[in-house]
From TrEMBL:
SUPFAM superfamilies: Mss4-like. It is an enzyme of class 1 (oxidoreductase). The gene is msrB. NCBIfam families: peptide-methionine (R)-S-oxide reductase MsrB (TIGR00357). It catalyses: L-methionyl-[protein] + [thioredoxin]-disulfide + H2O = L-methionyl-(R)-S-oxide-[protein] + [thioredoxin]-dithiol. It holds the Pfam family SelR. It comes from the Bacteria. One of its GO terms (molecular function) is peptide-methionine (R)-S-oxide reductase activity. Residues 12-136 form the MsrB domain. This is peptide-methionine (R)-S-oxide reductase.
Length: 136
């Protein structure tokens, strides 16, 4: 996790008590759920996607698109300052990690220039387990 203080800050013990083991592994340890198993991968339900750790709004159904990559994909957050982007040099490659701007939890990664027909040519590849969908 990054070193800055976030508006929502909890101890490791508090996060472990509030999150399931799979949620903790992704949100607090920057893990990744297996492709094509997340509950929101293919959903088209209208609503707001919020951080499962702190409840902050992240994305809405209007930014979601079918990328067929195995994880829910969005072309932008609902508001630019709802997420934070960091360089990630893990696994022998350079990627851009997406974090919740309120609690610093790992959400996934953002990729550019893949040719998707979206307004931003970006794909926010987000773990289902890192979000909750509140249907509209």
């Amino acid at each position: 996790m990054t070193q800055r203080e976030y508006p929502v800050t909890k101890s490791d013990e508090q996060w472990r008590a509030e999150l399931s083991p799979s949620e903790y592994a992704v949100l607090r340890q920057a893990g990744t759920e297996r492709p094509f198993v997340g509950e929101y991968t293919d959903t088209t339900t209208e609503g707001v996607y919020s951080c499962r750790a702190c409840g902050a709004e992240l994305f809405t159904h209007t930014e979601k698109f079918p990328s067929h990559c195995g994880w829910p994909s969005f072309y932008a957050p609902s508001e630019a300052d709802n997420v934070e982007l960091h360089e990630d040099r893990s696994l022998g490659m350079t990627r851009t990690e997406v974090l919740c701007a309120q609690c610093g939890s790992h959400l996934g990664h953002v990729f550019e220039g893949e040719g998707y027909p979206t307004p931003t040519d970006q794909r926010y590849c987000i773990n289902s387990v890192s979000m909750r969908l509140a249907p509209r």
